[in-house]
Q: What sequence folds into this?
């Protein structure tokens, strides 16, 4: 999810994780910033992103997204696993296979970092998307965010202070049932 038609988008992927799973917030793009990734047909998307997002006006925002989205660079824009990124440009063609161009590749760097889980043992550097996913799955904050989203979906509204007992009970039922989404929904609707 959150890829473009012909390339990945680690920034949007990271923002989604920060806001939807970790219940965090990413500051808005300042109106003075032209948010474009520079073209360089000899570098990976990660390398090009790091160059442009390290600027002072960008780093304040991207530090919340990039470390969460970059581990998913090990998946292409179709979601297929990859260990190398093709540098798709005419000057990088090294041959043909089945009448299609074959491009020069560079290794994918899937390292990232996780913070904001609410559990110090889960926060820190991650080696790849699978490590990130495993840690997110262990986070009580992520679990509570999912329960909050389920509440909003099934109740058709945002939660209020008066819904605290319902949310706490749904969380207890979810944990006690070993992670049963069905038990969670039944708890919310009863």
A:
């Amino acid at each position: 999810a959150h890829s473009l038609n012909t390339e990945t988008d680690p920034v949007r992927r990271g923002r989604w994780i920060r806001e939807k799973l970790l219940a965090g917030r990413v500051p808005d793009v300042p109106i003075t910033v032209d948010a474009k990734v520079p073209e360089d047909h000899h570098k990976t998307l990660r390398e090009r992103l790091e160059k442009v997002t390290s600027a002072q006006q960008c780093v304040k925002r991207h530090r919340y997204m990039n470390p969460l989205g970059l581990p998913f660079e090990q998946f292409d824009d179709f979601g297929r696993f990859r260990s190398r990124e093709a540098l798709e440009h005419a000057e990088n063609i090294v041959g043909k296979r089945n009448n299609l161009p074959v491009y020069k590749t560079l290794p994918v760097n899937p390292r990232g970092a996780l913070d904001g889980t609410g559990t110090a043992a889960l926060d820190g550097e991650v080696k790849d998307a699978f490590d990130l996913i495993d840690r997110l799955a262990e986070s009580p904050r992520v679990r509570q965010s999912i329960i909050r989203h389920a509440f909003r979906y099934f109740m058709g509204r945002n939660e209020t202070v008066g819904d605290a007992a319902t949310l706490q009970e749904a969380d207890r039922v979810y944990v006690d049932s070993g992670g049963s989404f069905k038990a969670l929904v039944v708890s919310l609707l009863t």
